[in-house]
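CHAIN AND CONFORMATION:

***
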Amino acid sequence: MKKVYCPECGAEMVLRNSKYGLFYGCSHYPECQATHGAHQNSGEPLGIPADKQTKQWRIKAHETFDNYYKKWGMKRKEAYKFLQTLMGLSQKEAHIGRFDKEQCQRLISRIVGGKEKGGENEK
């Protein structure tokens, strides 16, 4: 399995288990309390570990994106295809868990500012 490094202090992260499931925690815990999600079946990291500020922006971006695609009645696969087009990304890149702060801000701006569906402005 690929090594995962802490976005806060640079130390290696360790796959751990909690009552909520698998996650990565910084090996320098408790001095560093950074965490990162893991796929529950494989233990692979969910996206790319991010610092606290980027994690907050990812949460905002996901909330904006999820509300938007549900409002338009899109299925998840269709929504991620739309995300690819909207952000000019490949299928592999079009996951908010891989976004940096600026990409999150750009996504929010394009959805909130443009109110677009498939390139057409909402009336």
